[in-house]
């Protein structure tokens, strides 16, 4: 690995004549030109050790929001029943989960922050949508249903990206998001005029996703308090340090 001599130009922030070494971390891409990778890992560990894990709050908020919506999507409950869970969607599954995402960002987790802020905002939006429908602000129409279906497909794509990322964390997170990808994709089909039965299957998969998330949130709380793995999350695959990227 090449080294860079510190000059007045580099001290002033002039990077035109020096090499940058970029390193991927849970916080994102970091310029590690002046910090060895091993030292950066120590910094990450110290940072995580001083901040509580917000994943249980985020997973519980995600789980209850997904479960309540899935009860309607799957056909187990009528659509009119969605009004009764608007406060839960807005406050716990929405705002509460979003706060968990902000705390995850502060802890240095791009994955956790993105997941909980994405679905927290999404469930708060779903609660507002149900509220506005009940108030008559949004009237049922084929155009409204189609654009809502597109929104569900967008969340399916985001769940797919997060599933790929979760495979590096543990199998519980990956299974939670993997079931959600298919569930969202199938749940969107009736909004485009497809059979309602396909949407019901999507709702069942969303229920599966929520149950796994309930387990995951409980596992993190129990394991943290017992300081050992009481409820397994599924070990991630072994991996080596990501190499630095030499930007010339």
Order of helices and strands: HEEHHHHHHHE
Q: Give a quick account of the main beta sheet: strands, pairing sense, barrel closure.
A: 3 strands, antiparallel
The number of domains is 2
- The coarse overall form would be elongated
Tell me the span between the first and last alpha carbons: 13 Å
- Could you tell me the strand content as a percent range? 5-15%
Quaternary structure: single chain
SS class = mainly alpha
What's the number of helices?
8
Unreliable stretches: 1-13
Using the CA coordinates, give the radius of gyration: 22 Å
The strand count comes to 3
Strand order of the largest sheet: 2-1-3
Mean of the pLDDT scores?
84
Helix content: 55-70%
Walk me through what this model shows.
This protein has 248 residues and is mainly alpha-helical. The chain has two domains: 8-48, no CATH class; 53-226. The chain is 63% helix and 5% strand. It is built from eight helices and three strands; from the N terminus they run αββαααααααβ. The chain has helices spanning 8-11, 37-49, 55-73, 86-107, 110-134, 142-166, 171-188, 196-226, and strands at 20-25, 28-31, 245-247. α3 runs antiparallel to α4, α3 runs parallel beside α5 (110-134) and α3 (55-73) packs antiparallel against α8 (196-226). The model is unreliable at 1-13 (pLDDT under 50).
For this entry, give a set of tags.
single chain, 248 residues, mainly alpha, three-stranded antiparallel β-sheet, 3 strands, disordered N terminus
Task: Give the helices and strands, then pairings.
Elements: H1 8-11, E1 20-25, E2 28-31, H2 37-49, H3 55-73, H4 86-107, H5 110-134, H6 142-166, H7 171-188, H8 196-226, E3 245-247
Antiparallel strand pairs: 1-2, 1-3
Helix pairs in contact: 3-4, 3-5, 3-8, 4-5, 5-6, 6-7, 7-8
């Amino acid at each position: 690995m090449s080294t860079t001599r510190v000059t007045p130009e580099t001290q002033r922030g002039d990077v035109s004549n020096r090499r940058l070494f970029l390193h991927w971390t849970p916080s994102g891409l970091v310029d590690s030109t002046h910090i060895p990778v091993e030292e950066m890992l120590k910094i990450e560990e110290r940072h995580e050790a001083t901040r509580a894990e917000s994943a249980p709050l985020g997973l519980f908020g995600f789980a209850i929001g997904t479960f309540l919506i899935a009860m309607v999507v799957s056909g187990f409950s009528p659509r009119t029943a969605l009004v009764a869970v608007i406060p839960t969607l807005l406050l716990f599954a929405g705002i509460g989960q979003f706060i968990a995402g902000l705390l995850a960002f502060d802890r240095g987790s791009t994955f956790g922050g993105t997941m909980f802020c994405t679905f927290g905002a999404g469930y708060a939006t779903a609660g507002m949508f149900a509220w506005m429908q009940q108030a008559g602000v949004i009237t049922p129409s084929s155009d409204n249903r189609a654009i809502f279906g597109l929104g569900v497909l967008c969340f399916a794509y985001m769940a797919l990206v997060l599933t790929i990322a979760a495979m590096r964390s543990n199998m519980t997170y990956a299974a939670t998001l993997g079931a959600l990808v298919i569930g969202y994709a199938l749940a969107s089909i009736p909004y485009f005029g497809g059979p309602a039965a396909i949407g019901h299957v999507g709702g069942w998969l969303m229920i599966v996703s929520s149950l796994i998330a309930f387990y995951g949130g409980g596992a993190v709380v129990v394991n943290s308090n017992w300081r050992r793995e009481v409820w397994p999350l599924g070990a991630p695959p072994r991996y080596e340090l990501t190499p630095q990227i030499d930007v010339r």
